[in-house]
Design brief:
Protein name: Peptidase A1 domain-containing protein
Largest sheet: 7 strands, mixed, barrel
Mean pLDDT: 89
GO molecular function, one term: aspartic-type endopeptidase activity
Family: Belongs to the peptidase A1 family.
Number of strands: 29
Low-confidence stretches: 6-24
Pfam family, one: TAXi_C
Structural class: mainly beta
InterPro entries: Aspartic_peptidase_A1 (IPR001461), PEPTIDASE_A1 (IPR033121), Peptidase_aspartic_dom_sf (IPR021109), TAXi_C (IPR032799), TAXi_N (IPR032861), Xylanase_inhibitor_I-like (IPR033868)
CATH superfamily of the largest domain: Acid Proteases
Length: 417
């Protein structure tokens, strides 16, 4: 079967969704919460319902108390709904026959389980924003899969579905762009746990973006999107994952000697469903051993605390404004840009006496296996970073939020600064 033209299908999707006057072409704001039990991130959609966000997810799906207007299997959006299928989805004959209603096959990003579901019209409730405050409530028309509650296994208790944030045609960024007539791009600022407040997702904007300061509550000194560095944002055929071209890893500003082609074999992906950055064995061992050698004292190491292998006595780690004073871990990107993880993004406190290096070894994969990613950048390392996913320019913008603020410091009240 010939592959559908994605540009044509997106144009049709814009016509299928409700039209929006030019006056409502404003970015769409949603708060992002972190679930303490699962380390997954969620956004509210409407009436108290929450969805797990999945950077690799190609669909918006949820359980349904009632079945809204269904979509025909001959509708063009049905092809978009079936453009990607999770590798774990082994339902026989999935997507091969048209029998009146469109069947989509949403999957649970944690268990990998998928199920047949009806594709339906729905609406999301959000706010527009100017990058500083919420402005006005907006109802966003959308297309979603209406799945069984059995698909919610191992997701947070208050969650009713998953919001895919990939570059796929029925993921949330494309749907917001088509229905609201905004850019196909989004900002993501994931919060650190601890009840400090919600992080932020803003769809349809490249900026501006402001956060309040910790001590004064005043806005940050400037638009944080002006501090972004940019790297290519890539994808692979039949795969909705976001890839970034990492050419080397350095620890303490010293390049780590890795096996030839270790990073290009499998690539480096971004993943919100993984709590901590996972490295394939041939990448993990050189990186963590270089980190351990780079510490100022050799007697800090203590017993491992799963899932972490390299753990240290907290009282011997020097404190700084940006976390513990440990060697920086830097991903050197194509073009020479650097994404650096300082102590606040590389170390996690596991108890009153112990802090561990928050990079873990991938399980169930062999060293150098090109079928496995070399590095999966997890949620903890993305927290308190401003990330700009520009799906039109195919680039990722990234910047560490200044230590005087945090992703949980967006002003969600309607009062102006």
């Amino acid at each position: 079967m010939p592959r559908p033209n994605p540009v044509l299908l997106l144009a049709i999707l814009a016509l299928v969704l409700s039209s929006c006057p030019a006056s409502c072409a404003a970015p769409v704001l949603l708060p992002v919460a972190k679930d303490a039990a699962t380390s997954l991130y969620t956004i509210p959609t409407r009436d108290g319902a929450h969805h797990v966000i999945d950077l690799a997810g190609p669909l918006l799906w949820s359980t349904c108390d009632h079945i809204p207007a269904k979509i025909s299997c001959r509708d063009p959006v049905c092809k978009l709904a079936n453009a990607y299928r999770a590798p774990s989805c082994g339902i026989a004959g999935a997507g091969q026959q048209c029998s009146k209603r469109c069947k989509a096959y949403p999957y649970n990003p944690i268990t990998g389980r998928c199920a047949a579901a009806e594709l339906v019209h729905t609406r999301l409730i959000a706010n527009t924003t100017d990058g500083k405050n919420p402005l006005s409530q907006v109802s966003v028309p959308a297309v979603a899969a209406c799945a069984s509650a059995t698909l919610l296994e191992k997701l947070p208790r208050d969650v009713t579905g998953v919001a895919g944030l990939s570059a796929a045609g029925l993921a949330l960024p494309a749907q917001v762009a088509a229905s609201q007539r905004v850019a196909k791009t989004f900002l993501l600022c994931l919060p650190r746990s601890g009840g400090r407040g919600d992080g932020v997702a803003v769809f349809g904007t490249r900026g501006p973006f402001y956060l309040k300061l910790f001590l004064t509550g005043e806005p940050s000194s400037g638009d944080l999107t002006q501090t972004l560095q940019f790297a290519p944002l890539r994808s692979r055929p039949g795969n909705p994952l976001y890839y970034i071209p990492v050419t080397n890893v350095s620890v303490g500003r010293v390049p780590v000697p890795l096996p030839p082609h270790a990073l290009s074999a499998g690539g480096v992906v971004l993943c919100t469903r993984v709590p901590y950055t996972a490295l394939r064995p041939d990448v993990y061992r050189p990186v963590v051993e270089a980190f351990d050698r780079g510490l100022i004292r050799s007697d800090m190491r203590v017993a491992a605390v799963p899932p972490f292998e390299f753990c240290y006595n907290r009282t011997l780690l020097p404190p700084t404004r940006i976390g513990y004073g440990v060697p920086e871990i830097t991903f050197v990107l194509e073009g020479g840009k650097e994404w650096t993880f300082v102590g606040s993004s590389s170390m996690v406190d596991v108890n009153a006496k112990t802090a561990c290096l928050a990079f873990v070894e991938m399980k169930g994969v062999k060293a150098g296996d090109p079928a496995a990613a070399a590095i999966v950048v997890g949620g903890f390392q993305m927290e308190d970073h401003l990330l700009q996913f520009d799906l039109e320019k195919k680039q990722l913008g990234f910047a560490k939020v200044p230590f005087i603020s945090a992703c949980s410091n967006f002003n969600f009240t309607r009062g102006q600064y």
